[in-house]
Write a structure and sequence with these properties.
single chain, alpha+beta, Glucose Permease (Domain IIA), two-stranded antiparallel sheet
Amino acid sequence: MGCLVLLALAGCGSHPVNRAPVEDRGMAGSTAPAVVAAVKPAAGFENAGKPGYYTVKPGDTLIRIGLENGQSHKDISRWNALENPNKIEVGQVLRVVPPAADAGSAAASGAVTKPVTSGTVTTTPIAAAPLPAKQASAASAAASAPVKVAPAGADDDIAWIWPGKGTVLAEFDESKNKGVDISGAAGDPVLAAADGKVVYAGAGLRGYGNLIILKHNNTYLTAYAHNQSLQVKEDQSVKKGQKIAEMGSSDAERVKLHFEVRRQGKPVDPLKYLPAK
């Protein structure tokens, strides 16, 4: 009897250890293999990070990409064979410099092509009949005359003018104001700051209202924003001083002209280019 009591007490004094339950987050009871969905890479992914290519970010439009890379949005669309220029995807990689096939387009855009000086070209003269004395002398003088080539900074040789007659309301600030704001009244003329070609005319770039972008050469673009009306169309050539728009307040808190100068797509201070008033 005493042994039974001792055994009973021993049983009462033995408590099981409470353990936290283990949750099996695997595929317990399932023999089906995990299915991994194939992710299609963005178009042009193989060119990501290469010079002359741009990776599309959230909020980008082809117009903005063109402005920030110093190119026409139509050219970028053509270089990338885009079926729908209004449909680009985040992560898509776009060519933003002309391909070799477009090398001749520089002359058409008014850009100066710099001569290539590297490498040696060997030519074999073709035998010809001797020239008379006077012609030979003229030919010799022509051959010895220096060949005129475009200076290295030819694209910078632009005689800019003010696009509006008002005063400066806000100066350039790369982080806050990528150009200058010029005062005026609704309907005042907005003038082309230099000869160029209209590469954009519309209201498709948020924050700019009715906008005109001119391409002057392979280096410079100018932008004219917040217009009341536009007086030119895309692909139209314009002359310095030509009226291209009327000042307004589209997408702005007041009537003003927002004017930008872009050097190879990068905004620069217009006051360093415009003549002193």
